[in-house]
Specification:
Blueprint (H helix, E strand, L loop, with lengths): L1 E9 L9 E4 L5 E5 L8 H11 L20 E9 L2 E9 L3 E6 L2 E2 L6 H13 L3 H7 L1 E2 L12 H11 L3 H87 L3 H34 L12 H79 L2 H41 L4 H23 L5 E4 L5 E4 L5 E2 L6 H22 L6 E5 L8 H12 L6 E6 L2 H4 L5 E8 L2 E6 L1
Parallel strand pairs: 3-13, 3-14, 8-12, 12-13
Antiparallel strand pairs: 1-2, 1-4, 4-5, 5-6, 6-7, 9-10, 10-11, 14-15
Length: about 575
Amino acid sequence: MIKFKYCEWSNFLSTGNSKNKIILDSHTSTLIVGKNGEGKSTLLDVLCFGLFNKPFRNVKRNQLINSINQKNCLVNIEFSIGSTTYKVVRGIKPNIFEIYQNNQLLTKDAAIKDYQQMLEQQILKLNYKTFTQVVILGSASFVPFMQLPPNTRREVIEEILDIKIFSTMNSLLKERVQKTKDELIRVEQKVAIARNNVDSQQEIIKTINDVKQESVAAVDKKIEQTKTEIENLTGLITKLSGEIVTLQSNISDSEDISTNIDQAKNLINKKNHKTKDIIDTLSFFESNDSCPSCAQNIPHEHKETMVQQLKDTQDKNNSALQSLETALQKLNNRIQEIQSIQTKITNKNLEMSGFNSSISTLNKVLQELLLEKEQHSEDSADLTAEKKKLRELAQTAMDLIDEKTTISEHRDLQEIASALLRDTGIKTTIIREYLPVMNKLINKYLTAMDFYVHFELDESFNEKIKSRYRDEFTYDSFSEGEKLRIDIAILFTWRQIAKMKNSVNTNLLILDEIFDSSLDTAGTDYFLSVMSSLGENNNVFVISHKSDQLVDKFQNTIKFEKRNDFSIINSN
């Protein structure tokens, strides 16, 4: 319960430097009287300005400063909640706003707006609209509950039922829902990027594998080509070897031919020598008739015989020599054939040597290719690194998907919470529970003020009013006095509900000139009887011109009057 203790002000409206102070919790009923313009309604503006930084009447904030002194406008309000005492100090020229808790100044935030929110939301737990609906009734600038628009009516009821927290929660939840949506979009973008990264990495690995396989295939192809070349060269060598063997077999008589040539040449030389000797001897016998050595005559017959023998021998020798030369020519022809064959053999040996050299080179190439293939098979460092990177990217993607799932689940919970916190959710359920109590109390207070109608508010806080004859009316169907009774009944109902909920429960009730306008004498009596039933914990202040008619009905009277153009309090 908020228990207001006192309020004090100076240089506020018509009040000057001398402070006016009203003790708010000393009497259960207090009558405030004074002539028009003497400041009796200033209390309303003091409370609204001090607590909510706005006047009650329709004037600008700067118009609250006393027009004569024009500075040092100051308001002090003290109240307690439980065992904690608070004091609010607010001023204009200079601007002052301080909140004290048990005489200790509460730390101010950087923004005055935040400091004001702390006062309304954390300490008072009510705002200006609700304060003016529960604490004040009957001023010219006061808008009764039934004249408020539906959304404002609901705001007042939520404050009274202490369910405005759900609206605050819903407002905060909307911000969080938006943040969650933004976070979900951000994570979804990250998931898309992560998936693209995984796909790209898989393409890289596939490319590396493809390149590796292509490289191995290329090496295999080269190996097969090399082996084929070696086989082809080996076949050629085998063929050449066979040809060489065949050629060598064709010149197996080369040594014999060489020997025979030598022998034939020796024989020819001998035959030539013999032919020379025969020719010389024949020439001797033909040219000489006597022996030069012994000087004896050579017989003619002997000479003829000798010449004939020599010629015969020469013919035989020439015949033999011709045979030898023919044989030698054959042998020379054969040796030329042999040499030609040997040249072929040599060429084939050279060709075969070239093939062997090529085979040796190809074997080296083959070994290098086999080693390259083995290295391709074993060298997986790049692929291993890329696969490791793929695992890391995949893990990042999975983590982001998990994060997305968590955020999505959180968003689903927020949507459920949002549905519960909407006006059609928990609040409607609570209001539905309290509506019968509200309607019962309103009708109770109307009956106590001798106004016999059946008044009912629905969940949208639209009224349905029936007379005893069951005729249906609306609030605007009634006279001003009847409307005022409805307003009073609703005011007392809100105070009773607030007390039940211990939400906007306060000791203070201010009624501004309600006895001076629409209430007749009977209505005034009925209202005073209802007011007296409020209990000792209530401090009711009634502002009125009818001091002579009401003064004996109140425990205390405060009189405002003007002196030297400044309002002062004259308490009795």
